[in-house]
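Sample entry was shown:

___
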Amino acid sequence: MALETRTYETILITKVDMPEEGFKALLEKCQNIIKNEGKGEVLMLDDWQKAKISFPINKEPRGQWTYVRYKSLPLGVNELQRNLKINEFVLREFTARTTEEANDYKTLREGLPKELADRDRNRDWKEDRPRRGGFRGGGDRGGPRRDYGDRGPRRDYGDRGSSAQNSDAPAAAPSTDSGDTN
């Protein structure tokens, strides 16, 4: 039974500080694996540039995004994933099987530049959210703060945790218990 080539797509996130020649060598290695091991071909290679990652990966807040669409045997896909996982500059890789036509990619590509640009925008979350009332009231939920009136004078406990005794306190009476329990 002969295996047939199927269409896959892989999204790579590499470190931003990766040397340019190292990045080109990585892409060349990926293409060679697809051609030699997978007996397939690269259909599309798209560089999505550098952008912020939603959640930092290994303390890296930004990454170089790359999209690869290709035809390959499953053996070639497994070898590609293995090589990407052991590369020190690859933060993440995601591979999925897709359909022959690139309609899903065209839809994704239309909104991608705006989405990646929005990630780089510095957000002030306090201004984006509506103000809510909390424990102290205020806002549009809680109403006015309750007034509990004068609670009277507060006791001053002084330094309760100190081992030194207060000079105003009476001295402790000596113990009359001798310790005999007959």
Summary: The longest strand covers residues 41-57. Residues 136 and 145 are 7 Å apart (CA to CA). The domain at 6-121 is CATH 3.30.70.60 (Alpha-Beta Plaits). The mean pLDDT is 77.
